[in-house]
Amino acid sequence: MVSRSFDPVQVRFWESKKITPLQGTFEEFMQSLDAVVGHETRGLAVVRPEVELSIEERFKSTNAVVSRGCRQFLENDVEYVKSINVGRTVDAGAFYKGMNPGWSAVEQGLDVRRQLGDTILAEHFLCPESEHSDRAEIIMIEAHAGAGKSVLLRRVAWDATRDYDCLCLYLKPYGVVNTAALQELIGLCDERIYLFIDDAADHLRDLLAIARSMGPEGRRLTVITAERINEWNVLGGPVATAVTVEHELKYLNLREIDKLLTLLEEHKALGTLGRLSMAERRRAFAEQAGRQLLVALHEATLGKPFEDIIVDEYNGITPPQAQSIYLTICVLNRLGVPVRAGIVARIHGVRFEEFKEKLFAPLEHVVEAEENPIIRDFSYRARHPHIAEIVFDRILCNPEDRFGAYDRCLKALNIDYKDDYNAFRQMVRGRSLIDVFPNHDLAVGVFDIALSVIGREPFLLHQMGIYEMNRPNGSFVVSRNLLSEASSKAPGDMNIRHSLAELSLKSADIARTPLERDRLLTKAAGIAAEVRSARADEVYGYHTGLKVGLARLKPLLEESEGIITDEIETLGKHLERGLSEALQRFPGDSYIYEAESQLASVLSDSDRMVEALTDAFRANSRVSFIASRLAKCLIARGNIDGAREVFEKALESNRSDARLHYSLSKLLIRQGDASSDALLYHLRRSFTPGDTNYDAQLLYARQLYIAGNQQYREMFAELKKARVGSNLKDKELYPLTGRFHGEVERVEAGHCFILKDGTRDWLFAHRGRIADAVWNKLTPGSRVSFGIAFSLRGVNAIDVDLA
């Protein structure tokens, strides 16, 4: 904007829209342009014909036409891995210290080939099409910070493309997934597409769009994504049920350590390891077991604690302006987002050209610069987010200094840019601010700055409400006002609704009167039901609803003096039904087990309540809640035979009650004296094909396996499709008694397969359930002993040991 004179009101208005007014007339502006812009650059633009896309080599028809949206997706958002021409090289020493510019290290072969990479290639790239899912697959790689997940992701894409001619696309850091473009490409190429997405938590919307919107074409799409374990645990909930398989990238095994040592020696990057023997070098790495690869590399090669190395590195940066810029980059890059040159310019008054000329040299070994063609700006990154986190924690150890850094960064962010908005959201998360700023006034100051940047936006109000609800001595009134305002502005946001339910539940604990308490619990129950209805595949709505039921039941039991009133019976039925549904739908979930344990404790601790349940059951054995809860109270007191009699008598009056059949089945399994036919009878009546009684179906498949009925394979094939998170699909439950024997058939990075003696069926054994000393000795043909347990994916070998 150009103006002859400055009106302060107009100046503030345009600056609020990120526009800087320039004083002068339009004529003066054009004269300035004429003086700066040379004549040779003023020619009319030439419209260039659309260039041929490299991926067109995969099209089944030579006459295929690519839509404009699909072309933009291929040019701006993803890389066609086969056409990548690396060009630049990376210094080996810099790479081993965490610098990883694109594909350079992979192309140069600086990375250690990880066994997990080979496992992923074998299981998801080399398998026949019939073994893929009937919907879009999402393969999750989880790892601790610095474990090498980003390098692994690129290595798998590189090898799958060059060794096996798979069609691989790699989402650029600033790219956005276009599901319509993917559908179009699958149709044009008529083959499976593999899409790689790093930093999954930053692309939750993309992953959700893939899970929900790919349609029939999704059967030919496999997404391989990666994220830090802690980030995924906190942010990955909305996508968890869509994940097909989870892999964890663990520490290097002995073979991988030897390969890494060979590479370090080849590239003269051994550091202090250079004076040691091979055995001593190997031991130096082995002593770092359980730590991140990045940490191990630094500590083993430099001989100092990792954090001290990073602090010394920071203190060695000169001049002070370069050090200050590096600190700013770390404040933001620790959140996993790149830092635009525009932010550095605003905070430090340094344009990119000046940075490149004067300050890049002192920061070259710790900062990477990358041009983003979408926003036509450069971005800076510390060489690894984990290093940036250490710089933030150790250099800004004073809360006031942290506040100053937050103040400068938040005010410099332009939330119209995706990366800036992601950084903004990370910086204002309520729970994280409790840890970063123990001083309440400083946390409030951060929120005040955020409000001046973005206004009263629903996400920010939600985080302010969460902070107020969970901070020490927080105000529930203030929290409710904030969450209510956020919900009114985003009525369809179930995360905000769930927070309101939890707030009502917490408020009920300090209610002034029974009437107020009941009103708050009613409100919490209503919102929990709403969340459960909108997100039936997530456990949170179920758990909150159960907590509400327990909060209502406890005082009623205390007041009833051992009498089962109509109110207790009604509430008990509702609670028992909700608990049964949750236990079936989310087998092994810790939240639901906690609620079950609390309910059992409340009822079985009271002699009068057990007597009242007994009297009520004698009077009417048709009430399944009374029967089920009485039997569970008897089980808690060790009266197993009495509990069995209760279930059997209740079933005489309720032959079709699936919950009673399910509960009796679990009791019979616990007793261990029931016939296989009796167990199969009750378990088969515990569910209906296609329902969400997954736990009953799992137990039925288990019993079929024990009975030698091969139908168990069909049951597990269906259970694999259950809409629950991978953590629940992989949970090993209901182990068999005794030990079994067999031999290892195949060993992969994260698991092995064991051929069981006698039946000759293959059992899956997860790497994480096998002791390191045993795992390191396993080879095809090794004789082993093991236990057997079951997950929704099938039959698993557990507690594996060498025979």
Key phrases:
39 helices; alpha/beta; Rossmann fold; six-stranded mixed sheet; 55% helix; 803 residues
CATH class bucket of the largest domain: Alpha Beta
User: What's the number of helices?
Assistant: 39
CATH architecture identity of the largest domain = 3-Layer(aba) Sandwich
How far is the first residue's CA from the last residue's CA?
A: 80 Å
- What can be said about the biggest beta sheet? 6 strands, mixed
Number of domains: 6
Mean pLDDT: 86
User: What do we call the CATH homologous superfamily of the largest domain?
Assistant: P-loop containing nucleotide triphosphate hydrolases
* Overall spatial form: globular
Determine the strand fraction and express it as a percent band. 5-15%
Number of strands: 16
CATH topology of the largest domain: Rossmann fold
The poorly predicted ranges are: none
Which structural class is indicated by helix and strand composition?
Answer: alpha/beta
User: What is the helix fraction of residues, given as a range?
Assistant: 40-55%
Give, in spatial order, the strands making up the sheet with the most strands.
3-5-6-7-4-8
Radius of gyration: 31 Å
